[in-house]
Write a structure and sequence with these properties.
heterodimer; A: about 90 residues; mainly alpha; Non-ribosomal Peptide Synthetase Peptidyl Carrier Protein, Chain A; 4 helices; about 55% helix; about 0% strand; globular; B: about 230 residues; alpha/beta; Rossmann fold; two-stranded antiparallel ribbon; 7 helices; about 35% helix; Carrier domain-containing protein (chain A); ACP-like_sf (chain A)
C-alpha cells in the first residue's frame, strides 16, 4: 500500500477529509487514521449513498473553504481515499 | 408532555419538558433531514435539561414532524411566525437554543438570549439538497445542474431530497444567514477550527448517513445550556 505524501498544508487538508468521512460515516478516529490512498470508499462503504455524498461534499466545501462544481463530481472521485484527498488539495491550490 | 399550539387554523404539536414555573427555553433543532437524524439527541437533551431544572418547549414547525400541514406551504418566515405564536400561547420563552439551521429561525422572538450549536447558512442546506437531487436524477439517466434546478425552484418550487419546497422557501433559504444579536453564545465541537464561545465534546450527528445517538453529548449540551441560562 502506498503512503500518502504529506507536508505542512497538505497534512491539514488530509486531516479535514478524514474528519469529514468520520463524521458522515460515524467512524472512530482510529478507523479513519487507518485510511490510506487505496482505501476504497464508494465501493466498500454501503453507508456512502447519494445523500451521504451530498453532505460530504458540502462539509468539505465548508471546512476547506472551497467550491465544488456539479461537473467535478463523478464516481472516480469517491473510488478511494487518495482520489478524494488529491481532489481537495487541487481545489485548494486552484 | 405533548401539548399543542394553534397556528393558522391547525393544531401543531409541541413537546414540553420540565417544571412549569421556571424560565422556559425554546429549542430549535436542525432543519429538514438533519432534524430527523438528531431527534433522539434533541429529546434526550431536553430531558436532561428538565433534570437540571430547566423547562423547555420543542414545537413542531408547520409542515414538519406530526404537522398536518404540507411542507410546500411553509417558508422560513412562516416558521418564524409560528414560533412567535407558539411562544405567545405556551411561553413565556426567555431563552432560545438552536442547532444548525434552527439558528436561521432564532431571531423570530427578537433579540432574546440565544445559544447556538454549529449554526449553518441556508444556502449550505440548499446546496446539499440540490446535490442529492442531482445524484438521483443522474441515477434516472437525467442530467441536471444546480443552476437549472434553482431556476425551476425559484419559479415553481421543487422537490429536493423528499422535501417539497415552495418558491418562497427556496428564496428565503438561499439568502438566509443566522441573524446578529447582542446575547448569543456560539458553541462548536472541540475540533472545529471556527471561532466559538464554548466547545462541546461530541460529533455532528446531523451529518450521519446512519442515524445514531450520543447520550454523553445530550448531557453535555444540556449542562452547557443550563449553565448559560443561569448566567
Amino acid at each position: 500500500m502506498s503512503e500518502i505524501q504529506t507536508n505542512g498544508q497538505n497534512d491539514a487538508v488530509e486531516r479535514v477529509v478524514r474528519n469529514v468521512l468520520r463524521d458522515i460515516l460515524g467512524l472512530t478516529d482510529d478507523q479513519v487514521t487507518g485510511f490510506d490512498r487505496d482505501t476504497e470508499l464508494f465501493g466498500s462503504l454501503p453507508e456512502l449513498d447519494s445523500m451521504a455524498v451530498a453532505g460530504l461534499l458540502t462539509e468539505m466545501e465548508d471546512r476547506l473553504d472551497i467550491l465544488i462544481e456539479d461537473d467535478e463530481v463523478d464516481g472516480e472521485l469517491f473510488e478511494n481515499f487518495g482520489n478524494l484527498v488529491d481532489f481537495a488539495r487541487a481545489k485548494i491550490a486552484a | 408532555m405533548i401539548i399543542t399550539y394553534q397556528f393558522d387554523g391547525n393544531d401543531e404539536l409541541c413537546l414540553r419538558f420540565g417544571p412549569d414555573d421556571t424560565l422556559r427555553l425554546l429549542i430549535l433543532p436542525p432543519l429538514f433531514d438533519e432534524a430527523n437524524r438528531v431527534r433522539h439527541l434533541v429529546v434526550e437533551c431536553a430531558r436532561a435539561l428538565a433534570e437540571l431544572g430547566v423547562s423547555s418547549l420543542l414545537p413542531d414547525l408547520p409542515g414538519c414532524n406530526e404537522s398536518v400541514r404540507s411542507l410546500d406551504t411553509a417558508s422560513l418566515s412562516l416558521w418564524q411566525a409560528a414560533l412567535i405564536t407558539c411562544s405567545d400561547q405556551l411561553g413565556p420563552v426567555t431563552h432560545v437554543a438552536s442547532m444548525r439551521g434552527g439558528a436561521l429561525l432564532d431571531g423570530a422572538l427578537g433579540d432574546r438570549q440565544r445559544w447556538r450549536l454549529a449554526p449553518v447558512k441556508g444556502g449550505q442546506l440548499l446546496r446539499t439538497m440540490l446535490r442529492t437531487r442531482i445524484a438521483s436524477d443522474r441515477e434516472a439517466g437525467i442530467t441536471s445542474t444546480s443552476e437549472a434546478l434553482m431556476e425551476t425552484a425559484r419559479a415553481q418550487g421543487i422537490e429536493l431530497a423528499g422535501n417539497s419546497l415552495s418558491p418562497c422557501m427556496i428564496r428565503e433559504l438561499d439568502s438566509a444567514v443566522p441573524s446578529d444579536g447582542s446575547a448569543i453564545r456560539l458553541v462548536r465541537f472541540a475540533d472545529d477550527p471556527l471561532d466559538a464561545d464554548g466547545r462541546l465534546k461530541g460529533a455532528p450527528l446531523w451529518l450521519r448517513a446512519e442515524p445514531a445517538h450520543n447520550p454523553a453529548m445530550a448531557t453535555a449540551m444540556a449542562q452547557d445550556i443550563a449553565a448559560w441560562m443561569r448566567g
